[in-house]
Amino acid sequence: xxxxxxxxxxxxxxxxxxxxxxxxxxxxxxxxxxxxxxxxxxxxxxxxxxxxxxxxxxxxxxxxxxxxxxxxxxxxxxxxxxxxxxxxxxxxxxxxxxxxxxxxxxxxxxxxxxxxxxxxxxxxxxxxxxxxxxxxxxxxxxxxxxxxxxxxxxxxxxxxxxxxxxxxxxxxxxxxxxxxxxxxxxxxxxxxxxxxxxxxxxxxxxxxxxxxxxxxxxxxxxxxxxxxxxxxxxxxxxxxxxxxxxxxxxxxxxxxxxxxxxxxxxxxxxxxxxxxxxxxxxxxxxxxxxxxxxxxxxxxxxxxxxxxxxxxxxxxxxxxxxxxxxxxxxxxxxxxxxxxxxxxxxxxxxxxxxxxxxxxxxxxxxxxxxxxxxxxxxxxxxxxxxxxxxxxxxxxxxx
Length: 399
Ligand code: SF4
Ligand code: SF4
Description:
Blueprint: H1 5-20, E1 29-32, H2 52-55, H3 61-71, E2 75-78, H4 89-98, E3 102-107, H5 112-115, E4 125-130, H6 135-141, H7 147-160, E5 164-171, H8 177-189, E6 194-199, H9 215-226, H10 239-245, E7 260-262, E8 265-269, E9 274-278, H11 281-287, H12 310-321, H13 324-336, H14 345-352, H15 373-386
Parallel strand pairs: 1-2, 1-7, 2-3, 3-4, 4-5, 5-6
Antiparallel strand pairs: 7-8, 8-9
Helix pairs in contact: 3-4, 8-9, 9-14, 10-13, 12-13
The structure holds iron/sulfur cluster (SF4) (2 copies).
Residues 253, 255, 269-270, 272-273, 293-294, 303-304, 307, 309, 312 line the site of one iron/sulfur cluster.
C-alpha cells in the first residue's frame, strides 16, 4: 500500500487494539461531508440533488471536529459536495491534523491550484482528486469540458509543492478497459501516490441511471482492467479489496467501517444510503439495524445487492487481514495481483455488450434525459433489471 509508514503503523495498531478489545462495530474511515454544494454536476453524482436551502448548509468546523473526536477513526475522508468551497475548510483540516488523523481531501480540483497556498504539505494530508479516466472520459463524466486539464495541472502543482496526491476514480459501464489502463499510466507519470477505484453506486438520486454496473459486470470489468497489472501502478487499496473487485474474494459489506457525518448528522447506515440521521456516533452504532444491510443479512436490502464500493467493503478487507485465514487470503491476493486475467466467455460477452466509451452517452443536462422523479425511477428500474444479481454466494463476513 503506497502510504507513509507512519500511516500504515497508525492504522495497524488501531485495528489491532479494536480486535483485542473485542469491539465489533469500529470505524476505520470517517466520511465527513461538510457540505453538499458543488461547482460541478456530474452525471453519476448522488449528493448534489438536494434543494437549495440544504445546499446552502455547512457543517461548522467546531461540529466537524467534535464529530471526528467522538468517532475516533484514524482516517477521515473529507467529501461533499466540493470541500474547497467550505469557508472553514482550513480550520477543519488543521483541526483534524492536530487530532492525529490522516485525511483524504476529496476534490474535483477545479479550485485546488489556487487553494494550495492555504495548506501546508503534511504526511497526514492527501488530496484525493476526482479523475474518472483520460481527458475525454473524465470531461464527459463530470459534464464539463476542460476539467481534466485543470485537475491535471493542479495535481502537478500539488506534487511539485510536496503534497501527497492520490486520485479517486469511479467506473461506469462506459469504461473502456484499455483506456483505463492508459489512464493509470498517465496518473503514475504525473507522480500520483496511489489510485482509488470504485464501481459507480446506483444512487437513486443520480441524474443518469443507465450507466451503473451490476455485480457480475463489475467483476468482469475489473478483471479485464487489472489483469497483468503493471509493476509501476500503485493503488490506494489493500490487495484483498482489489481481489474482491476482480471477484476472487467475496466480502460482505461493513457499513459502520466508513460512518458518514454531514449537515443532517450521522447518516444511517452508510455513505450511500440515507435511511435516517442521528445526533451522535454512539446512537448511530447503537440504533442502526446493521443486519438489514449487505447481501447476507436478514431481509437483505435490494439497494445493497449490486454494491461493491470501497466505502462499504474496504473496511471488511482490512478487518479480514487481521485474522489468520484473512492473512492467507491477503498474501494470496498480493501474490496474484499481477497475474494474467482469464475471463470466461460469458464475461467477455458481457463486456463486449457494454457501451464502452466512444462518446456513447451524454450528460443529464441533455434534453433527451428523463427529468422527473417518476421517469428517473423507471430508468433506474430498467437499468437494474439488466444487471445480474447473484444472491446465492456466501460472502466472507464482516467480523
Ligand atoms: S465533483 Fe463530486 S460532489 Fe461534485 S458533482 Fe461531481 S461527483 Fe458530485
Ligand atoms: S452494501 Fe453498499 S449500500 Fe448496502 S449498506 Fe453496504 S455500503 Fe451501503
